[in-house]
Amino acid sequence: MIISVVPRTASFVALTLALGGCSAAPMTASNSANASNANVPVTESMGTATMPPATTVEMPEVVTRTLDGTINALPVRVRLSKDKNQLQGEYVYETGRAAMRTVVAMLSLEGTIDPDGSVHLVELASNADGKDTKTGAFEGKLTNTSLGLRFVGSWSKPDGSSTMPVVLSELTSTPGGMKFVSSRMPSTDKRLAPVVKVAYPKAEGGDPLRAAAFTNAIEGLVRERVREFTEVAVENLGEHVTVDTLALEVDYEIATATDELVSVVFTEYSSFGGAHPSSDVYARTFEFARGRFLTLTDVTGDTRSLLALLSQKSRAIMPKDEVFQTDLEPTAENFSRWYVTRRGMTFVFSIPHVAGDTMQAYLPFADIKDALNPDGPLGPLIR
Q1: pLDDT tens string 314-359
Q2: Fewer CB within 10 Å of terminal CB in the chain, N or C?
Q3: What 3 state SS string does 29-56 have?
Q4: What is the DSSP string of 111-153?
Q5: For residue 111, which phi and psi values (nearest 5 degrees)?
Q6: Residue 199: pLDDT above 60?
Q7: Which pTM does this prediction carry?
Q8: Cβ(351)–Cβ(281) below 8 Å
């Protein structure tokens, strides 16, 4: 699923399918108020701290961001791309039900943004035949602030009925004041400069030692990926492979940011000049106290039991075809790619390219908390 209007942007597979059993529309309609008033003061509230009101800054012409919030009190995550006045994206509900997420079906968004920030989006759902059906519409104001993108508006059915409030914001900082700013990692080979577009988060503010430890760990991870790509790309350069047929495009989102940990999701598009470019998703969760990326062993008192539970829950929501079940055995390697949100853990699995390269299993904390250590790094999220 291409979520940017730039043709070769990496896909963000974590936001491609509404949770199992959810319809395209929000599941409750108890609140029909229209919240499209863009003059509502914008604040950043996370945990026990509330950041100062955000100040409005200039909106970039081209930008892709992930926003977290609610539609009529139901939690959602939205991936949105802007190219001048055009908008594209998709969103997913994050409720208390486990769900498979793939590129096969999605709640997609497309529309426009006016010079004053007024947004007009159509929501589309794909059926089994790949045909899109209009299932809803979003209207409201999108603003760029010192704390990231903000959207305040409403969702309605295609006919304009059942209006529900929508409030979304980009996660860019921790409650303690550490901010995450985007930086770029270039290739060491100048010939590849036009085709290596790798973004990653740097931490600023808050505890300087913790910010430096996070940035160093992330930079090491990204630098190694760029090195690997550069090595193979340079070897491939020749008569049939030119620089303009190569590509490494990496973007990221902050899935969770607390004063204890930060979970980062990377999405990648890569091409080595062949007929079939590929996409990938990888993630890391960094704990400030340890000063390193977490493993599953760090979040449980019984790794074997946790892996067994993860395997069981994942198998229950994945397609029964063998190609999707192969990598669900309860091993640490199979469940090594994961990230956390405020509501659960998501695990990333590789699948054949024709099926979308990756698929993900979202497991709410309610389903797996018995196998997690309540006094461990995820304790504040599961309690």
Answers
A1: 999 888 887 778 789 999 999 999 999 989 999 999 888 777 788 8
A2: C
A3: CCCCCCCCCCCCCCCCEECCEECCCCCE
A4: EEE-TT-EEEEEEEEE-TTS-EEEEEEEEEEEEEETTEEEEEE
A5: 170, -150
A6: yes
A7: 0.79
A8: no
How far from chain centre, in Å, is Cα 218?
17
Beta strand 132-145 with 56-57 is antiparallel
pLDDT at res. 190: 95
**CA separation (Å) from 291 to 35, 338, 379?**
41, 18, 17
- The DSSP secondary-structure symbol of 26 reads -
Residue ranges and CATH numbers for the domains of the chain are: 13-169 (2.40.128), 179-382 (3.30.565.40)
**Which residues have C-beta within 8 Å of that of residue 52, sequence separation ≥ 6?**
43
**H or E element at residue 357:** none
Q: Rg of the Cα trace of the chain?
A: 20
141-190 pLDDT tens trace: 999 988 889 999 999 999 999 999 999 999 999 999 999 999 999 999 99
Rounded CA-CA distance 330/333 in Å is 9
